[in-house]
Specification:
272 residues, globular, mainly alpha
Length: 272
Amino acid sequence: MIINLASGIFAPLAGILVNRFGITLAMRLIYFLGFISMTLMFVGRNKMTTETRIGMELIKKHNNLSLSEKITDYKEAMVYFFTNKLTFLVFLIMLFTYLQNSFLFYQSIYLKDIIGIKESLTSLVPGLSAIIYLITYFIFMKCLTQKGEASSLSLGLLLNGLGILLFLLVKPKNYLLLAFSTILTASGNIITITFRETLWSNVIGEEERAKIFAAGQGLISLFSAPAGYFAGWLYKINPALPFLMSLIFYLASYGISFVVKNIKEYMPSKPS
């Protein structure tokens, strides 16, 4: 996750490529480099990773199931998914925070069209974000872990929401407020992602985990598919609307996180 988020440090290099070769050729070069690096990652992971013990047991168990038994098995997992209140609420946070990403896709265009930043300089924003990701992770994450996953998730969502709110208030050439907005959003994002994924894993039983993950990711993909189109439609109406929708998703997730926190406080702790 750190490698994925911190890769934004290299975003300013994309700005240099755009400035030198133009958007079309620069994007072709970036996609080609992406093809090389991702292929190396796929091969490396396949070669160097092994299945977990619980994974091997589940593979052995499901190899002996008929198609009807597998359907029944997934049906039971889906019932668990929608009837377990804590699991469903954490899924809603997952869904909302994934959906808001579709509305932030237009950030670079907004920086150019509304705030007036040159195309080649818009990459400085993800570059700054990547630096904040690393600072937050290596300096503050240990302290946040001690506060608890639900409380830290709430903090991350709050920082994200404040960052988006300030972004909506940025006027042309107001780079100081833009930088402060980026710092809040980036720190909130790394905190949110870290504790969202941790909480999501911890509220699912080991045996149900693979099926719940599959169901959750399937539903997220289903809802996310039209989100980019909808964000583009909103941007055409008013460039601020996609970011307003992102703010709404964060506020909704922030409210749900308090419900999750209250539920977890009254749950019996698991033996270590």
